[in-house]
Amino acid sequence: MECHVYYEGDDDPEKCTARRLEQFDEAILYRKMSQVPYGVVLNPHADRALSPADAEEGLGTLVALDCSWESAEAASFRMNGVHRALPFLVAANPINYGRPFRLTTVEALAGACCIFGERDRAEELLEPFRWGETFLTLNEEPLRRYSECADSSEVVAVQEEYLADAEEDETETANDGDGTTAE
Questions:
Q1: Order of strands across the sheet with 28-30?
Q2: How many helices (H) and strands (E) does the chain have?
Q3: 126 phi and psi angles, rounded to 5 deg
Q4: Is the residue at 181 inside a domain?
Q5: Helix (H, G, I), strand (E, B) or coil at 169
Q6: Is 82 contained in some domain?
Q7: How many domains does the chain have?
Q8: Residues making up the binding site
Q9: Residues in the annotated binding site for S-adenosyl-L-methionine
Q10: Are residues 6 and 66 in contact, defined by beta-carbon separation less than 8 angstroms?
Q11: Which helix (H) or strand (E) holds 81?
Q12: Whole-model pTM?
């Protein structure tokens, strides 16, 4: 699975996972959107969830946008390709550890590879990061389940289970044990 990244360069270069992927020859970075090849574009604003069925649509090419979360507007994702949103996954990176949907570029690419049944490729992408294996461990069950889905609607159904569980966990945390809400 080829990984390509449109690089906006608006985040901290020391913490940029896309630049590190480029250093290890695991991804190709582009500074002009027009240069980015056609593929499956990982876009949090997309109308459909990524599923194993999308692997053939992108012709073996994954495309991500590397930018600051503050600038990740829908207009930033005007790349050619099949746009898909990643389903519920939890970040393992030090900045957003444990936060759902707040993935780094490498986490997004690795998650997509796992959904496409290419776990070995995901491990290769994550190897240069000391927290990389943690991402796969934290998301082991959802990634396995998403990879077993036939299409986007099945992925969304699985995601809804995780979102309901996360909401339930939040409610339990807010309660102090006697059914009242903690203040």
A1: 28-30, 2-7, 61-66, 39-42, 81-84
A2: 6, 5
A3: -85, -15
A4: no
A5: helix
A6: yes
A7: 1
A8: 17, 65, 86, 105
A9: 17, 65, 86, 105
A10: yes
A11: strand 81-84
A12: 0.87
Residues spanned by the domain of 139: 2-174
| Separation CA 112–CA 162 (nearest Å) | 17
Among 159, 115, 156, 114, CA closest to 132 = 114
- The residue behind tokens 């507007």 is 73
Element (H, E) at 40: strand 39-42
CA angle 41, 42, 46 (to 5 degrees): 90
Tokens matching residue 160? 């809804």
Residue 107 covered by a domain: yes
Mean pLDDT of 44-67: 89
In the DSSP assignment, the letter for residue 80 is: S
Beta strands in the chain (DSSP E): 2-7, 28-30, 39-42, 61-66, 81-84
pLDDT digits (tens, 9 = 90+) for 23-55: 999 999 999 988 999 999 999 889 999 999 999
Is residue 182 one of the residues assigned to a domain? no
* 65 within 8 A of 111, measured Cβ to Cβ: no
* Euclidean distance between CA atoms 2 and 10, whole angstroms: 24
Query: What letter would DSSP give residue 71?
Result: G
Number of residues that make up the chain: 183
